[in-house]
Amino acid sequence: MIFEGLAEKLQGTFDKLRGKGKLSEEDVKAALREVKLALLEADVNFRVVKNFIKDIEERAIGQEVLESLTPGQQVVKIVNEELTELMGGTQSKLTLASNPPTVIMLVGLQGAGKTTTVGKLAKNLHNKGRRPLLVAADIYRPAAIKQLQVLGERLEQPVFTMGDKQDPVDIAKAGVSHAESNGRDVVIIDTAGRLHIDEKLMGELKNIKKAVKPHEILLVVDSMTGQDAVNVAENFDDALGVDGVVLTKLDGDARGGAALSIREVTGKPIKFSGIGEKLDDLEPFHPDRMASRILG
Ligand code: GDP
Questions:
Q1: Which helix (H) or strand (E) holds 136?
Q2: Per-residue pLDDT tens digits for 200-225
Q3: Which ipTM value was assigned to this complex?
Q4: Which of 4, 17, 22, 34 is the most exposed place for a label (fewest CB within 10 A)?
């Protein structure tokens, strides 16, 4: 599970700190050195770690904290607040159009979990009373269309496809029109991924964006790839502009480096996390709950 190693280390560090009663500046600095190492071992971006520790140090080393009745607890509280802030502060929700259909475009590299996430998101929205339409605009990966159709059947939600011989831009546009004329209020577009970011992929995604003007572009990244996921997010955001991130495979990510770096590096919030292969395994991302998971 995510943050396993980090949680164990930080809880050890803070147990020591809390056990001390009175704290000196040096005690706090020593603890923060341990925090810094633990974050780097969890594969958090170096620059992010540096700023994070600096912010905490500024708040924690001062008379108010050190001379308080429970200085250890105060420091932990500060770390908790800063961790929450690092992951975006408050939960960032999907933007739903006031005038339906809401158009959501999922983008990302191949294997990140895009198609699976289309299904999960459709289920999540359907559970909330929405009427999703899944649109198969990945015409390159041979199994992608079929995979989406199978998901649609399982969810009993319609899938719009025009096969793999049409231009994905036309498919996306026709999908939105189909939703409009069939009373579907959320369109979820599955787009093509590649093994690496390339200009052709970005060009196609930009054209789809221009054609359907999505309310949400969600970038799906695999948390298990750590800082690569962060780089991918930066690149996609620079080239295309994304509204939020879905961080998949959190169930297999023991370190959590991507979860702790993406928001700070890209400025874009993590909106959902994928926590398994099943259609129910999608959760809204709550920065405060994640911080509490780390600090116990
Ligand atoms: P795409 O190429 O981005 O469309 O990726 P897929 O949706 O086909 O997913 C690739 C693989 O990752 C599949 O085997 C999925 O079952 C798996 N997968 C997707 N999301 C998650 C997740 O949150 N946790 C786990 N454990 N596996 C996932």
A1: strand 132-137
A2: 999 999 999 999 999 999 999 999 99
A3: 0.99
A4: 22
